[in-house]
Amino acid sequence: MKFRLLLVIGLSVFSSCQREAFSWDVDNTIPLFRTEFKLDDIDPRYMNNVSGDSSYTLSYENLVYSYKVNDVQVSDTGIDESFNLRKLKLNDQQIQNEITLGDINPIFKLLNGQKTVIPAQDQTDLDPTDIDASAFFETATLDTGFLDISIQNDLPVEISLIVFELRNKDDNTVVATDSFKNIPASGGVSKQTIDLGGKTVTKNLVGVIRKLVTKASSGPVLIESDKGIKVILGVRNLRPVYAVAAFPTQDVINQDEGLILYMGGADIKYFKVESGRLRIKVISTIQEDMSMVLALPGATKDGKSFYQELSLPGPGGKGVATTEKIYEMKGFLLDFRGKDPDVKDTVNTFHQILRVTLDSSGRKLAVGLQDSIVLEYRLEGLKPEYAIGYLGNQLSRTGVDTTSFNLFKGLSGDVKFKDIKLGFVLKNSIGADGRFRLHQLAGINQFSGKDLALSANPLNNDLYVAKPKFIRGEFTETKVQLDVNNSNIKPFLENLPQLLEYDLETEVSPNGNVNNYTDFVFDESRLDVIMRLDVPISFEFGGLVFRDTQGVNFGNLANLQRLKSATLFMDMDNGFPIDLDLKIELMDESRRVIGSLDLEPGGRIAANSPTDFVIKLPRDQMDALRRTQYFHIVAKAATAPGLQKIYNTSRLKIHSRMRFEYEIQN
Amino acid sequence: MRFRIKIGFGLLGFILTSNLTAQNLTPQSGNVVVTHYMPVFEYKVETGSNTVPLGFASRFAVGGYVNPDKMAAYHEGLNDNNRLGAFQRMSIQLVPFVGLQKYATVNKQKVSVYYSSETLNGAKFTKDAFGLMMRGNTPFLGQEMKVGNNEIWSLSQRKLKVKFWSWKKQIAWNVSLAQVVNYSHIRTQDLSLFSDLRGDSISFDGKISSQNTNYQPSGTGWGLQFGVSKSFDFVRPNGKRWSANFSLQDFGFVSINNVKTVSRGVLYDQNSLKPVEWTGTNRVNLKAVNLNYSDLRAGDWIDRQRDSVEAKLNFNEINQRGTILSPFEIVVGLSSIGKGIMKKHLTQNGYFVNLSYRHVLGYVPRLEVGSRWFSKNDVAIMPSVSLGGFDVMDINFSLQYKAFVELHLYGMESFIAPSKWHGGGLMLRFRYPFKGS
Question: A93-245 maps to which CATH number?
Fold first, then answer.
């Protein structure tokens, strides 16, 4: 037993045996980077060279506030209409039937061609005659309609009385019965109209002469047995409740009118569409195919107005046919002056023509009062590229609010500038006149906690801005120059504010529609309130502190835990007239300080001279470096007494290499 | 490894000392030969170099840390051409013994089973290569480092070996099945590096390749090897008895998979671990990266420099597999056999000479000459001197107590002054049960 146990233990030990790593430290020095810093690198837009002098002038703009007019946007607008059978009709039609002399009395057939005296006749219930009304419909239950019965007497004798009855052959229901009196011979006509409202008529009809009374002839007359009484049936103004018939081509919807749109309070004459669409949806239960024409004479693009023809096929026996179409309106110029601006020039009114036509296929289709066409016509999400009209009087006050002032980001300390000029600029690209008033402006330095209100005589009153030309991007500027004579701008800026606290007011079209609907707005139009600073880079500071936090990324460096120490050598050639005392702290992901870099010599970079800078990271700092996510850099700058200028030849050159001890394992 | 060995031996020692009442192997019947399989444990470590002292070589072999000061001292003592090697093996054998414990002998009619874990390392390198690899470039700023041609090789295997005897011919055979757990081979050719005095630029040229599997406990290859040994005795006309022996061990092949190869200036085939061709290379100059002000973001410029270096060096990477000749060993020996008459406390019993060669980088043929001595309490002692092997010269000492334990010490002079003398090793072998009646 012990032998086996020993064996198992022995095998386990040997099997798991792995040679411990052989490790040692290597000390390597590698080149890192070289760079050159000049003031242009901050942002060349801000740095201007003074002509005749290679020094710099700092030009810096800070947007304090930007105002846009309430968006001119068309509320989604449309038409929802429903059309049913009351708008449909059947064709007026006529058919003709003849009842001959021979039909009236067969004996006349034997006398055909002879002249004889025809005695007076009085007959009842002559044989019925089939009348085919399929030309009208298969069947129809009529809401309204008229049947005109004309009796033409081709007999050689006068008809004193004829009672004519019209029946549905299938169920023998009476459609119409009427009496005709004293119809002259040889072509006399008598006509009666029957109201078909509420009656059901089928195509198979039967005409019956219930009573025929004729007068005797005045003498012998030629007997023509094939002549007789013509019955002419005509239907007109048929409005069926239900019909199975071939419907004729007809307009079921026909609109030509102006559509008024809500523009958010503005009165708009013209509107160029930046985005938006026209949606049309037709839902029909009518079995027949239809077509639609939509024309917008006031919507033009590339010289052509909007015109669309749309096919609306019937449901094909399946109940409901739905057709939906969306038309993108981007790029269209909409004329909102109404249907006929030459007659009546209005605003916010959009001319549209809509016609829906039932296209007769000749097929006999069943249509009832429950059938309908529902039309949804909608303008959606229309936004302007520009709009022209009157934008309305809009007054806006911000209340107390803040914005950042990034020129002095991270700075605090004691600085003196020379010749500061600050421009207060109202930059207006809204196509309307405007008014501006500054109620309050203060600058706050976040590090010292000091805030200083701006006091400036030129800003105590309203400022007015004019509208620019109607060109995209065009603007007008109203400038107020602040200097040491008309304001406290120097101490305001020497406070090095990072935040501006303001309260201001803007008004569009303060005097109303004085421009007679020629105001305009582009999608990007706005009124910007800008502070524009021009200061020569000529300054003196006793102690100006710059702060910056830089994110670092050591995650890609593999096996950082084997790094035992590191030394960063930075050979600096400082061409600026500024002494810098640097301090670099290590921060973790929560921005807590977890260590600092040891800088030699003492973290100082002297003005206008070379410095060999060494940043050490000894072994006991390696753990902090591995956890570092940010470098917090604090640089205290000082100049020699007196105002110093910086020239475009001033450079800070840095040449860097790194030495590191690293453990290798094999 | 050293840590685990201590645990293993501690456990074994505890078990052994707690069971000193061993089995009685005395046959109960005079005519019955009883064979007992007993475990034999062996640990062997052998290091050597023509220039590098034991303090470095031992850590190279078994692991450990060398501090920068010592590394600098080792570097100073190197020649232009240096070699270094190490061999380490732990094994457990089940050997069929017959006879009384203290005089037990191997039953040659039975099979032995042998399980081992072994690592073989070898290196040929220049002084500048050692300096650059072991110390970095900072101590050599402003100097041209002629790294030249170097080679470092390492193979770790686990083996299961079966030994059997061809009885009549007295030839011992063995066959082993090996599992590769680690392989690496680094080669350089015409390598040179110059670092500017201030470290502002580094200039590098030459060819280099690195083949590596990293340690794979579940195996990254296999091998099949065999061994044979034969001895025969003869008597000279003057009556003196001599014994000659020949041994060839671990001869075969090793097939290795999943070898990650990174190279520059070398062409390889995916199915062969030998270079196909050494190609020309261009000199690479590494200088400071030019950055804009906006690019100054720590970590990013370190990444950019590293990326710039990698792009310029243009290393190729492929995965390979291949077969190599296993690191076999040949031993040829001749020894005289004394009469065995114990006269004094310590009696000399002949001389021996062995010539051996191990097919591994850094090993040169080794000649060992020594004598055998016996004491009355069954202790055999064999002092010897050897030339070659991994080392240049070694003073060796072996001790054997009955059939229970053997201890061999190689290069004892390096134990006395490990920072000065190079080469050193030991082998310890013992059989369980340890003691009987």
Answer: 2.60.120
